[in-house]
Amino acid sequence: MLDGYQEAKFDHGRRRILAVEDDLINREILSLMLRDTYDVLTAETGRQALELLEKDCGTLSLMLLDLNLPDLKGIDILRRIKGNALTARLPVIVMTADQDAEVECLTLGATDFISKPYPKQEIVLARIRRTIELFEDRDLIRRTERDQLTGLYNREFFYRYAAQHDEYHPEEPTDAIMLDINHFHMINERYGRDFGDRVLKLVAEKLLAKVGDSDGIVCRREDDTFLIYCLHRSDYRQILDGVCMQMGTDYQIRARMGVYQDVDRSIEMERRFDRAKQAADSVKNSYSQSVGFYDDAMHEKELFMEQLLEDFHTAIREKQFTVYYQPKFDVRPEEPVLNSAEALVRWRHPRLGLISPGVFIPLFEQNGLIRELDSYVWREAAAQIRAWEERLGRRIPVSVNVSRIDLNDPPLLKMLEKIVDEAGVGRESFLLEITESAYTENAEQIISVVRSLRKNGFFIEMDDFGTGYSSLNMIATLPIDALKLDMQFIRTAFRDRKDTRLLETVIRLAQSLGLSTVAEGVETAEQMLTLKALGCDVVQGYYFSKPLPAEEFETFVREKCRRP
Predict the structure, then answer these.
(1) Can you spell out the DSSP letters for 487-535?
(2) What is the value of pTM for the model shown?
(3) CA–CA separation, 243 and 337 (whole Å)
(4) Is 315 part of a structural domain of the chain?
């Protein structure tokens, strides 16, 4: 949070100086010394000086302060200046003949002294110029290293000062802490950006108040995320409670905190806060806990994830990733008919065994490797479509996942076209599944890309529909060919009371828009028959088959074809 003084002192015009001197002759001497170089304001009394400060502090570059004034002591004025956040960084040169006062003035924050009677003009100007340059340079650095909204360190300088903190406290245990405001994007959306900025400033002030006395530093890393690096303490709950306060009558700030205690100083500073983030993420969806601690289990998980990242390119090269295929059936005929399949990737690691995609796909999305994995799956699936056509005498369309990261890759269309053309596969057989949530992030860009894919012959399915990212009204505007109902949506509809009214509404909406519907996660005959009765077009799930390796899928197809 930059004050008026910081903003004003970088003007390129003449600097303004406030000279506080009760003696008329001394005031005139100062004015003659300074007026060719600076704009000079003068005050005869302490009260006049404080009034001018309140009015013009933002325009001042320096204050010259006489200690012997008729109404207020100069030492008390100095104390008030340095005790006020709005004036504390204004440099003050004390003018006095009393050398015994120097120590107290320096302790209170005075920058320099000019003795009385005044020395030569050159000496006075040199002291003033050096002081102003020193403070302007210091504040220029401050502006560079601080977040302009909150006044806290920005991330880059925070890490530097945190490393310096280690040097000052080489033997003392230190904690890395991350604090994140819950659902902050909704604060801006509901109450406006100004209100959101007020929340951020208030949180910053509370953290500084809590941590500043314990030899720690605080950073606003980005948006609503704050970092703290401080000597080990145990009052994390109190720190969080101090932040989670009521804003007027409408809003209660809520936050979560991750703590990495007694950090390992052999690892990079940024990784220490990655561990704090892991701890915070561990309580992300908890209603009973809001402070998480990095522990041995998280450490083991971190090592496991690092291993997966290291092994990724070897796994691609050695084809450790295997594409499974789950059959999809058209349930509109009297007997369901095999319609297509969904490609699902599995990782058969030579040492770690079968690794769930729920583990490695989010990891690769976070680390930018998902594009390479998706491209691998696309090539495998396209080649498999062609192979089945040659061996089975029929073309089985396959749907593949296209992540939101893929959609932001400019060469996506050309890459997909090249893959299907090289495999000799028609684009109508290479179905693209795009998750519902992708349409809500950078929506215009994503919709433009998807529209281009459809225009060039690709069939688009909205995957995971029903997870809550989009509204029913939004569906009418999106460039899609089919809605794929999320398995949790299906399970919820059939749980306990078996309330399928929402399912029916969505299916009818899709029909009215000319969209087909695909239901995944169907496990029972009751679910399949109900969905068929509601008008659902295609069904997949364990009721028909679990995902199968290519060879077993081929056997499954041959058996289906042999049935009378």
Answers:
(1) HHHHHHHHSTT---HHHHHHHHHHHHTT-EEEE----SHHHHHHHHHHT
(2) 0.62
(3) 58
(4) no
CB 195 within 8 A of CB 181: no
Same domain, 127 and 203: no
Q: Are 231 and 215 in contact (CB under 8 A)?
A: yes
The reported pLDDT for the residue numbered 416 is 96
Shared domain for 268 and 376, answered yes or no, is no
- Tell me the CATH number at 384: 3.20.20.450
Tell me the H-state helices in 404-500: 404-407, 412-423, 443-455, 472-475, 487-494
In a domain, 215, yes or no: yes
SS3 for 23-39 is CHHHHHHHHHHHCCCCE
- HEC secondary structure over 280-304: HHCCCCCCCCCEEECCHHHHHHHHH
CA 19/CA 77 separation, integer angstroms: 13
Contact 406, 361 (CB under 8 A): no
What are residue 232's phi and psi, to 5 degrees? -55, 140
Give the number of domains in the chain: 3
Residue 99 corresponds to which tokens in the numbers above?
A: 């050398």
How far apart, in whole angstroms, are the C-alpha atoms of residue 154 and residue 159?
9
pLDDT of residue 547: 95
Taking CA 190 as the corner, what is the angle to CA 189 and CA 193, rounded to the nearest 5 degrees? 55
Alpha-carbon torsion, ordered 147, 148, 151, 157, to 10 deg: 30
Residues 6+ apart with CB under 8 A from 32: none
Across the chain, mean pLDDT equals 87
Q: How many residues does the chain have?
A: 564
Of the residues 145, 163, 181, the one at which a domain ends? 145
pLDDT digits (tens, 9 = 90+) for 258-303: 999 999 999 999 999 999 999 998 888 777 788 999 988 888 888 8
Is 99 in the same domain as 168? no
Low-confidence ranges of the chain (pLDDT < 70): 1-13, 85, 140-143, 212-214, 246-250, 439-443, 466-474, 496-497, 561-564
- In a domain, residue 311? The reply is no
H-helix or E-strand containing 157? Answer: helix 155-168
Q: What is the pLDDT of residue 497?
A: 63
Predicted local distance difference test score (pLDDT) of residue 254: 87
21, 289, 351, 359, 548 from 283: Cα distances, Å: 61, 6, 31, 18, 35
71: in domain: yes
Tens digit of each residue's pLDDT (9 = 90 or more) over 474-519: 677 778 999 998 888 888 888 766 778 888 888 998 899 899 999 9
- What are 42-80's pLDDT values in tens digits? 999 999 999 888 888 878 889 999 988 999 888 899 988
Phi, psi of 64 (to 5 degrees): -100, 120
Domain that holds residue 193: 155-294
Q: Are 219 and 153 within 8 A, CB to CB?
A: yes
Q: Point out the domain boundary residue: 145, 170, 194.
A: 145
**Using alpha carbons only, what angle is made at residue 555 by residues 549 and 556, rounded to the nearest 5 degrees?**
85
Pair (217, 122) in one structural domain: no
